Each structure stands twice: as structure tokens, then as C-alpha cells.
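In practice, a research group might receive sequence data for several interacting partners and want a quick structural hypothesis before committing to experiments. The following worked case mirrors that situation: the sequences arrive first, and a predicted assembly follows.
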Amino acid sequence: MSSDFTVVIAAAGIGSRLGMNLPKSLVEINGRTVLERLLTECLHDVADVRLVVGFRADEVMAHARSVRNDLVFVRNPAFRDTGVRHSFWLASRHVSQSCLFIDGDMLIDPDSFRDFRQAAEKAEALIGVTPSASEDAVYADVDAKGMLQRFSRKDRWAHEWCGVAKLPPQLFNGQGEYVFQCIERILPAPAFTLRAAEIDTRQDLEAAKAFARELDARARSSALA
Amino acid sequence: MTVGFCFDFDGTITDRELLPYLAEAVDLADEIGVLTKATMDGHLDFRKSFKLRCRLLSSIPVSVVNKLVGDIQLEPTIAQFIRSHRSQCAIVTGNLDCWIGAFVAEHLGCHLASSKGLVTDDALTSVQDVLDKGLAVMDLRERLGWDQLVCVGDGMNDVGMLERADVAIAYGGVHEPCLGAVQSAHYVVYDPQSLCRLISQL
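A structural hypothesis for the assembly, expressed as C-alpha cells:
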């Protein structure tokens, strides 16, 4: 991915469902924070990374700077009353090219993410999905050709929206409370099945720890090989 | 659409704060340092503190100040951005025109809004006008017909211009931007390449 590619990470939220009084990006999973894992394992070769901060912004910025000093921090002072859609809009409103948007509470398999980036290079839009697993899912109807046709809160399809997508930057200018409602305007669009774990609840956190152990073991064995 | 870029000078595009640097020349580093820190942090009124610091430094001949200023290093990436967009860029600084005007003209060639000092026989005799950065950027915008205003700064005296900007950036290249600047900003950036990449897209 070239340096003219912009990555936006939303990390402004309170993480109330996890209830740790800690931004989810700062939650440690097997010794490293969600944000550190994302920056070092998935985005180390991307020059233009924008991190949206709100809740406990000072700590998020200080931690992010301990990983790398060249991030662009985007302030979302209205983080208590707004969601990820607003954070994505704040970070992309001055960008002209497509951006890769990432909800900052994701633990992503770096190999899977590399494949996502490769597929995203050729596509105007690419929507990340995971096999349906979470309690409060936004389900994604993906057809046999891999096209995402529609979203639903009720219809329990095999995939769910996972908070990672390559999208045109102006998508978040218009109406829509949630990110998926903005994406609906450009459907159908190609979907990509990522290996990723979202950390919304304590139960998610336990699942993410197991996932991280698997990823870390794989990284260790490939380093030894 | 014409975009105008206004930059603070000390510690934003330079590698050091000017007044503490000049203070070393007259052995007043501690005194000026305390005043500068308290002013940057918003504990002292900028205008009064600035006049007091200028009075403390007025024993240095203006020609000597100009020579000392000549040794200041500009952040190369940001300086290059300014040189490439001269007509769209302005240095907006509380420093005195008689101290830094020639340096800015020679090394950057962009617009300059600064405080004004009266010089008689190579000596600074009075500070005639302490710059209000908020008013200064509004004036630049109107005079130069800028449709969009981008401001970059790090101190309490930058808050006025950051608040009037369409895009406000707190920049921590040399030291941590003060809390007031951060809270007035849309973006917070610490790396010069990242700053220039960001503003190039505006």
C-alpha cells in the first residue's frame, strides 16, 4: 500500500459495554494493547495513519506516540454524544482519496489484513465482514459472488459487519447515525471475510485473548522458521 | 478555493524559542525561561510578559539579535512547504519585526504578521504593538482573499488564531503543545512530514 493511502482508526469511544473505564484501544491483550497490535502488526508500513481520539485522549495519544510518533491525531470532543460514524467523518472530511477505515476495538489477524489490503487496492470500496458471532451484530447479506447486498439488525445471515472497510471519504458527510447506514448508500459492494475479533464485552475480551494467543504463537513460529 | 496557511514561528517552524535563546547572550536565561514557560502555559498575560521580556533583552543591539537569529535552524520539511507556497503562507508571531523580519524574508519569503518594535541607533527603544494573533489571521484572510484558513501553533498565544481557523492544528515538533492549543485544535500532530502531508491535502 503506497504512502498516498490514508488509514483512519476510530478510538474515541468510552467502551461502556466493556466497562473497564478505559478506551478499548488501550485494553491489553496478552501484554500488548489493541492499538499497539494494530499499529505494529497491520499498519507499520502505512505512512498516513489518522487516529481519532476522544475519551481519555491524552492517554491514547501518549500511548500511540510510544509506538510511533508520526500519527495524525484527530480530536472528537463530542465523543460522548457521537459514534464511530462521526469520528470517521472528522478524520476523512479533508481527504480526497479513498480511505481504509478501522474501528479501533478490533483485533485483526495480520495475514488476513494483508490480504484485505491487497484486495482493497483494486477496489473502490471493500467491506470487511466476519462470520456472525457477536450478540449485537449488524448482519451482512453476502451473495455467492461475494457482493454485500444489504445489512440487517434482525435477519441472522452468516456474516456480520466488522468495522473495517475501504470507502470513499465523502461517504460520511451525509445522513446516517451508524457507519453501516452510510455504507448502505453504496451497496451492493464487494465484501471481504476477515479474521478478526471485536472487543465489545467482557466475553468478547476472553475470546480475543484466545485469538491473540493463536496469532502470537503463529508469529513466534514463523520468526523461528 | 484559496487556502491560507498561518504558522507560529518559535518552536513550530524553528528548533528553539527565540527569547530564551537571546537571553543566553545576556546571561538572563533563567529569568526569561521562567517568564516564557509561565506565558506558554497561560499563567501570564502574553502582552505584558512579552513587553517585559523585550525590555530585559533590549540591551542587546538589534544587529546582534539579527546575527543570533541567523543561526536559528528552520524545520526543513515545513520550511520547504512554506517556500513552495509563499503567497499562501504567513508567519504569525509575537516576535518583533526588527528582530526576525529580515530572516523570514530571506529564508521563507512568505507573508509576516509580527509585533512591532521601535529601533533607534541599533537599540530597541520600545515595543509599539504586540500582535494579537486572532486579529492578525483575520486581517490576512481578508487582505489576501483566502477562502479557507489553516493555522498551526503550539502555545497559549496561538489559541486566538487556532480558534479562528477553519482547520486548526496543534503541532508538537519541538515541545508538547500547551493544553489550550490542543483543546482548540481539530488535529494534533508531532511529526513534520505528517504535518505537511496533512496540510498538503487541504
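Before designing any experiment, note the following. The first helix of chain B runs from residue 18 to 25. Residues 3-15+73-200 of chain B form a domain with the Rossmann fold fold (CATH 3.40.50.1000).
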